[in-house]
C-alpha cells in the first residue's frame, strides 16, 4: 500500500494558498510499510486553523504542510501563511540551507509540531535564533522542519521547468496509468489542458510509501523526488519496457518539462484534483 496508519488532515480549497497537513508516524525513506490492496484514505479532516488554535492535539506529532511562504524570520525561520487562520512559524533544522522560492510557488515542510520556546529550540537543535526576532512567536505553534522541498503543481513544472531541474520536489496531482509501461505513470491536474502530463519514473523501486502496485487511474497522490532533464539515457535506465523508437517518439512530444525520479509516493489528503 502507499500509506499505513497515517491520519491525514487537509483544508479544503484549490488556491495556491491552500495547506495540506498530514499527521504521520513515519515519513522517511526507511518507512517499513505492509502492503495491502488499496491506498488508505485519511481518517480526519481539519482546517489549517486547527494547528494554530488547537495545537495541543498535534504537539509531538509529525506533520507535512504544503503552503506558500510569507516572511522570513532571521536565518533559520520563515512563516507559512494560510488563506485563513494564523501564520505558522517554521524552523529549518535540516542542517542544510534552503532557498525559499518565488512568492507564487508553494513548499512542502515535514517536521514536528511544537509550542515554540526560543531557548528550548536553541538548546535542542543548536540554532542561534536572533534575539528579538522571535518574541511574537513564543508559546505559539511552530513546525520544527526535518525536510523541505519545493512543491509545484504539474502545470508549474511545465511553465517554469528549468527552475526545478535537479531540485528535490513534492508534486501533487492525479495519476494517469500508461499502457505497456513498467514502473512509471503520468501526473496531471484538474484544469490543466495537456495531453502528456509529467512523467514519474522509478515507482518499481524501493521507495517511501510502500508498494504502488494498487495505485488507481485518477488517484490523487503526492510524489516526492528529483526533477531530471528528459533524455533517452534516463528512460533506458528506468526500464520502462520501451524500445528505442518509442523512446524517441515520446521525447519528441515531451517538451518543456522534467521527468520526476521518485523516492516516494503517498495518497493526497483529499479526493482527486484539488490542485495545490
Summarize the structure.
With 276 residues, this protein is of the alpha+beta class. The protein has helices at residues 49-53, 118-125, 154-159, 232-237, 244-253; strands at residues 7-10, 20-24, 62-67, 69-73, 77-80, 88-92, 107-115, 141-150, 168-177, 184-188, 198-201, 220-228, 259-267.
For the largest sheet, list the strands in their spatial order.
1-2-3-7-8-6-5-4
Mean pLDDT: 76
Counting structural domains, the number is 2
Whole-angstrom Rg: 19 Å
CATH class of the largest domain: Mainly Beta
Describe this structure in words.
The protein is an alpha+beta fold. The chain has two domains: 7-150, Beta Barrel (OB fold (Dihydrolipoamide Acetyltransferase, E2P)), CATH 2.40.50; 154-267, OB fold (Dihydrolipoamide Acetyltransferase, E2P), CATH 2.40.50.140. It has five helices and 13 strands. The strands form two sheets. An eight-stranded mixed beta sheet has the order 1-2-3-7-8-6-5-4. It has a five-stranded mixed barrel with strand order 9-10-11-13-12. It is elongated, with a radius of gyration of 19 Å.
